[in-house]
Amino acid sequence: MIKKVSLRSFRNHSKLDLEFDNKFVYINGPNGSGKTSVLEAIHYISTTKSHRTNNDVDVIKNEQPFAVIKIDTEKKKYSMVISDKGKIPSINSKEIRKLSDVIGDLKVIMFAPEDLNIIKGSPSVRRGLIDLELMKIDKEYLSNLSVYKNILKQRNAHLKNLGLNDDLTILNILGKQLYDVGIKLMSKRNEFINKLNIETKNVYQRFSEYKIDVVYEPNLNNEMFLNHIENNQKQDILYKTTVNGPHRDDFVIMFNDKNAKNSSQGETRLMVVALKLGLLKVIKSEVNDEVILLLDDVLSELDNNVQNKFLNELPDDVQVIMNSAIKIKSDKIQIINLKENDNERP
Ligand SMILES: Nc1ncnc2c1ncn2[C@@H]1O[C@H](COP(=O)(O)OP(=O)(O)OP(=O)(O)O)[C@@H](O)[C@H]1O
């Protein structure tokens, strides 16, 4: 459980120290008070990245040389110093040289408004989500994915210089290697999305009378993938790239048996929240470690009765840190109020 979050020169916060004494924490405050920044900082410690910018210096308070995030859990003390020269993470006051050694040490699942893109956005958004979550729990998947991407790069580079009448030996060798590792990715994705489907449906039915399904849509099945690699080389040569394979996989979210992408904002939000809670269940069942749930602006656009149901049915086996501009009253939730430009709290 996170006990303390301290920020120095992070976004609008010059100096902010928050103490959490509850499993359910609700950060409340007007727009621009820096609620999202608090969750962003926790996410940063977990992934070494912001969820809303790829440019690290964006998180440093204007005109300041560096930002500092400190997070104390019951077991460990994490810190991260971010400057225009890079970032330095530490765990228990020991500097960690490789960023990859910090990623996932503090495990979080985050819902952010940007995640509505999971339903409305392109396949690469959904593929990215599944790959990221599988990487967190399965190191073999992480290494297979990196091998796959490497071979794909080599095969595509080779295709750039290949004519229709050229010798195909190298292309076929790379194709077979791509197939061998590609089917491992597909099998893992299939298994993972099936589990995610079960958990997401379970969560969703607590909030809605409608039905949701999460369905894996591989670009090709194993047999078709092999056929493509062994017999459709001409197509790839003409397009100068590997047209088909798991790098084009997708999964869809179905709302009452129809693709959910035309659903309303409120419906979409509830589906993505259910998907993230489903994800939390799957990840928790796979790792033997505490997972923290971050919910950024989760209550907006949900009906009043769904908001109440949601707050009453928060998962009680994880710490949940939420924020919203909506005022709530609850005995079981620690409510922290940030004031407008509340950046100098003692
Ligand atoms: N690098 C920075 N330096 C100073 N201020 C910043 C920086 N980056 C963002 N801000 C400001 O910080 C404020 C806090 O933004 P944040 O998104 O965390 O607030 P919020 O309370 O979640 O708001 P909302 O409810 O509108 O989402 C905004 O007013 C933003 O303009």
From TrEMBL:
What's a Gene Ontology MF term here? single-stranded DNA binding
Quote the Pfam families the UniProt record gives: SMC_N
Q: Gene3D superfamilies annotated for this entry?
A: P-loop containing nucleotide triphosphate hydrolases, RecF/RecN/SMC, N-terminal domain
One cellular component GO annotation, for this chain's record? cytoplasm
**Any one Gene Ontology biological process term?**
double-strand break repair
Q: Does the keyword Kinase apply?
A: no
Q: Where in the cell is it found?
A: Cytoplasm
Against SMART domains, the record matches this protein to: AAA
Role, per record: The RecF protein is involved in DNA metabolism; it is required for DNA replication and normal SOS inducibility. RecF binds preferentially to single-stranded, linear DNA. It also seems to bind ATP.
- Tell me which family the UniProt entry assigns to this protein: Belongs to the RecF family.
Which PANTHER family does the entry link to? DNA REPLICATION AND REPAIR PROTEIN RECF (PTHR32182)
UniProt name for this protein: DNA replication and repair protein RecF
The root-end lineage is:
Bacteria, Bacillati, Mycoplasmatota, Mollicutes, Acholeplasmatales
